Amino acid sequence: MIQNKPSISLITAEQVDEDTLEIPLGWIPKIRAALYLKNLYHKQTNGSQPNTTLISKLLYPETLWGKNQAKITYKILCYNDDSSVFEREYPPAPVTSGLREKMRDSTYAMYRRAIYNLGVLHEIPVAAPTINALQLAEHFTPDLSTTGRFRTLPSDVVFKSLQHAIEFHLDHGQDLTKAFCRIALECKKRNISPASLTHEEVQAIVGEKLRKFGITQLSMAIRSMNSGRYHSGVKGTKDGYFSNLRSNCGLYELIAVYTGAVQLTVGVLMARRISELHMLKAEDCLDETEQWLLFMNAKSTHHLFGLRRKEARPIEPIAADMIKTLIRMQKILVRIGYLSNLKTLFAVPDFKGAKKLSDSSAYLYNRNLDLFCDYFEMPLNAEGQRYYLRQHQLRRFFAMLFFYCGSFAKLDTLQWMMGHADPKHIYRYITESMDGAVLAGAKAHFAAERLIEGDDEDFQDLAQLLKARYGARDFTTVDAHDLEDQIQELVLEGWVEIEPEFFTDHQGKQFKVVARLKRVPEAA
Question: Which residues fall in a coiled-coil region (predicted)?
Fold first, then answer.
């Protein structure tokens, strides 16, 4: 069976890097084959993965809930019939602080509630746990896992990526989206799919400027030939693929990189959740003035019968301009008949060359960000892992932008973006629009970076408190995540507060971020 379906035996480097199942790799193809023969796989966007609900029905047939609950999917057991399944150039840097080895408190609460609700069986003549047992279960508290805290990205990584995103938009955004519209028009006229276009036809359609930029083909995930025949598994080696990506060979990959650039910019400046962003609709995500972003709040269903509340937030002009570029592209595609209606804002062309625009999803949203990070070669950490940006990490960076604009650092682009408004007004907007936990994390991260860089003029009291509490002597050698955790602990315990201090001088309205003690250290 494995010989007839060789993709089942293919284990990628990413799968090995992220493997937590601890099964010998030599067993993996046989386990996959057994699952396949039992029809326990189902198709997903990025390949075939075990259907954990079906597996649960086999393993837990006598349970009330366990047989219907989806379980963790281990990537090592997934396979893809496309022989070129790599999606990232390097292993990803961890996005949360540590692995969960125990049940989460929210999961335990669900199980406890299900057991306690068995008490209703006492109302009818059916065997049920005793009242005493139910009460003991209700009040029992095991040793549970705490929710993993999202790791903070180094500020310079986010700031540099934001610079790349804005510059890529200004230099190439219009050219790339217009080129795709010309591809779509040609396919509409000839009633063919984009995959049918030869490399020579693609180069002629995109024009001289993009040919000089490096574009040689529609997508590196397909091979266009004069026959128009589609071939799978043609991305080649990982080194070759990412070298070609940065050489600008594939039009569709560049459009995904550009879409990732828009996602990143909007994500940093708007500080919204990923579900709120990937579900934005091209037809109504901006108001009539094009100065407000309209979105469905992901956590506003209380008293709305499960429906989300539509909200509006002011949006920076550069982010609005990026959004309008994507909207303009979709409107052209609708006008020429390539699309029947507008899609989600971050919809992208199908890499396999199908005649469609794929609606955004959490998977595609993150894939675009991954391509962006590999295209611009985001830095690696000490373990050789790349910082692949995720929206839940970016949410606090609107506040970080604000803090750094008041630090008198050489960040001309950021000062230009934020310097046109009263800093008090901006900070009021930040406090009103961001979750308290997100803002607290941004403050702690900013203070930690300042201490590590030796710029502690405004954090001397905090530095002394950290030295007294944790024995820290040289902050330049302290792990940034550990120091951030220590600062957040002091803030939560009420020892210190980190706030901007506003003032006016000969240059106008200014501010700096300072740490103030709220309790005298002797009381510690």
Answer: none
- Whether 426 shows a pLDDT value over 50: the answer reads yes
- Residue 272's nearest CA partner among 306, 297, 253, 304 is 297
Read off the pLDDT of residues 489-500 as tens digits, 9 standing for 90 and up.
888 888 888 888
Cα dist from 149 to 113, 156, 466, 481, 482, whole Å: 26, 21, 21, 10, 12
Domains and CATH numbers, the chain: 6-77 (no CATH), 105-139 (no CATH), 155-375 (1.10.443), 396-523 (no CATH)
As a whole number of angstroms, the distance between CA 217 and CA 199 comes to 5
**How far is it, in rounded angstroms, from Cα 453 to Cα 407?**
13
Asked if pLDDT for residue 456 goes beyond 80, the answer is no
Q: CA-to-CA distance for 449 and 155, rounded, in angstroms? A: 8
Give pLDDT, residue 485.
86
**Between 432 and 510, the higher pLDDT residue:** 510
pLDDT 10s digits, 236-286 = 788 899 999 999 999 999 999 999 999 999 998 887 888 899 999 999 999
- Is 198 strand, coil or helix? coil
Pairing state of beta strands 357-358 and 348-349? antiparallel
Nearest one of 333, 329, 394, 358 to 150, comparing CA atoms: 394
> Which single residue is written with the structure tokens 């070298």?
243
CA-CA distance, 384 to 399, in Å (whole number)?
29
Rg (CA), the chain: 26
> What string of DSSP letters covers 96-156?
BSS---S-BHHHHHHHHHHHHGGGGGGGTTS----HHHHHHHHH-----BPPPPBPPPPHH
CB under 8 Å to 345, separation ≥6 — which residues?
Answer: 280, 281, 282, 285, 323, 326, 327, 360
Query: Does residue 181 carry a pLDDT above 60?
Result: yes
Q: CA–CA separation, 76 vs 32, rounded Å?
A: 9
Q: What is the pLDDT of residues 94-116, one digit of tens each?
A: 776 654 456 666 677 878 888 88
Supply the DSSP string of 360-403, one letter for each residue.
Answer: P-HHHHHHHHHHHHHHTTPPB-TTS-B----HHHHTTHHHHHHH
Residues written for the chain: 524
Asked if residues 279 and 294 have their Cβ atoms less than 8 Å apart, the reply is no
Q: Measure the CA–CA gap between 194 and 175, rounded to whole angstroms.
A: 18
Write out pLDDT tens, residues 133-152. Answer: 988 888 887 766 555 556 66
